[in-house]
């Protein structure tokens, strides 16, 4: 087995279940968890708790695979539960589809010693032994399991300090960064959201020795999220309240705003999207500061959406998307691309500016049934906020990356936003239309390149399913006269065919 990482006393079955839930949060496809222990040591209890936690169903039937050898589950992560007790020899692993399961799912193995050393070295080993009235678990792991286990233990210590030690934990969501969210629930009590956002590495170097995150002004710690969230709450908007925080460790306990979004069976609901534009109009109606206080007395400086940030994002297109579609660009094409965006930035930068929340679209917005007015719109995921053209977030909403927004719906949203702004004072609707087109084109260009990078270098091809929709949005933007040069560039070098 691999190097020792952790030893835990589990005084009762509830503690065993809690450990299984903690491990379930950190699992990903390709992980192998090997359960060791004598009969009655608690392997089945642990396995059932882990599978139920991943499935998000505490009542899920989890039969023992003693006779079937393998039992599979289509959960948040696909799981293959193997019991190798009846395995004749390790050579039979191929016959029962073990290697295929490892490549496609999380694999949970009881009696792993029957595999005779054929398990991957980067697995997690859990040894369960009887101890007094309960049991003791010894955990060790290859690969990055030591790091994952340390983080798991740190999160439990945080929950203990803030009075949520015995809470049930369920994975809620993650994103392309190392940030993850969990819904936690106290026994017979309320729920909250646990945000796990360890400080991130700065990423790859792109220019002048600076990383992509530094140039694009992307948050690498939890501090911007805290500062911007409190600023949004201060102007009457529904960002989640912070119930507890460990800023150095990157851990937050947040108000649970629920899970009702802006969609009905995958389709956008206009009433909810329209309210989201009213939230933006409220933000944009008054000057907003670029220096925001933090609870520890420090100040977060909201960065500008400057020329370098715009450029480094659109450069993802020629660098990643063009090779993906087998359209490598000659040097003159890249030079022309840079020139077009340099010219567009001048127009973009002259537009009305405000807080720019960046990913203001359906995955980060919630419908709060029990509230009124602007408080009905819950806002999430604003740690990358900048000072930039206010039209950007309207374009982010009207050209929702993960939802099909038809042209009529988008036009009605823009009209609703403009009408809301005009009702509250003077507003340059013509300038807004141009800034909206540039914002949408910049965002679509960035996302197509970014999703291509995730597919090509991070092994995440699922992001490519959004590309056709994003190309459609980009074609809409290119219809605006302000983007005529960019439209000609695409027609010449990288046609946006269906």
How many domains comprise the coordinates? 2
Q: Any idea what the CATH superfamily of the largest domain is called?
A: Aminoglycoside phosphotransferase (APH), C-terminal lobe
Low-confidence sequence ranges: none
Strand tally: 22
Q: Could you give a short account of the major beta sheet?
A: 7 strands, mixed
Text of the CATH class of the largest domain: Alpha Beta
Strand content: 15-25%
- Helix percentage: 25-40%
Label the CATH architecture of the largest domain: Alpha-Beta Complex
The third-level CATH topology of the largest domain is Aminoglycoside 3'-phosphotransferase, Chain: A, domain 2
Radius of gyration over C-alpha positions, nearest whole angstrom: 25 Å
Instruction: Using the alpha-carbon principal axes, give the shape.
Output: globular
Keywords: ATP-binding, Cytoplasm, Magnesium, Metal-binding, Nucleotide-binding, Transferase, tRNA processing
Organism: Kaistia dalseonensis
InterPro entries: Aminoglycoside_PTrfase, Bifunc_ATPase/PTrfase, Kinase-like_dom_sf, P-loop_NTPase, T6A_TsaE
GO molecular function, one term: transferase activity
